[in-house]
Amino acid sequence: MYATTFEAVNSVGLPAREAPAKQRNSREADLLARLKAGNQTAFRELVERYQSKIRNLTFGILGSREDADEIAQEVFAKVYFALPSFDARSSLYTWIYRIAVNECYGFLRKRRLTLVYESDSPPDTLSTRMQDVADPRPVTDRAVMQRDFVNKLLARVPEDDRLLLLLKEVEGFSLAELSEMTGLNLNTIKVRLFRTRQRLIKAAAQLESSRIHSRQK
User: What is the pTM of this model?
Assistant: First the structure.
């Protein structure tokens, strides 16, 4: 299940792997010191270092280049204002990645609420017609349906567990790398990944059952 469905989320491919740990930690410590000092050049370096990865991530989740670029901009705006509170318990990339994932799922949640609100209107109202004109995209294909299904599943997972699973299954980081990036020990990561996968399997079965039930009505 995961090999297929997570490919839909990661439709733009894996990012380039990061430098070896010692080199990465040294460079990051220097960058973080300059960021904490309010160095604008350091922030530009931060954006240049991670913007392509964050755009790939947001596009992989949202499936719309326009939405992905907008959310990526919001992510770095949040990063800028939140830098003074960053405690370095995780790597900078993990921290930024968490903000990006949360922004994406917050966006999807708001969009679902908007669709529900619009669906309460009588058919063929002005708002419905305007929505049709504003969004003339074709019917979703199989890959998009898979991505939407995965997003529905991941929305049911706690934030920290969702982050770990995406870093492991989509970004391809090893358990050792996850431990270094998050500050968690290997056993904790293994247990949380196992429980998250079990929760997703159960949630997938529930969603499929609901879909079959709705078809039979």
Answer: 0.71
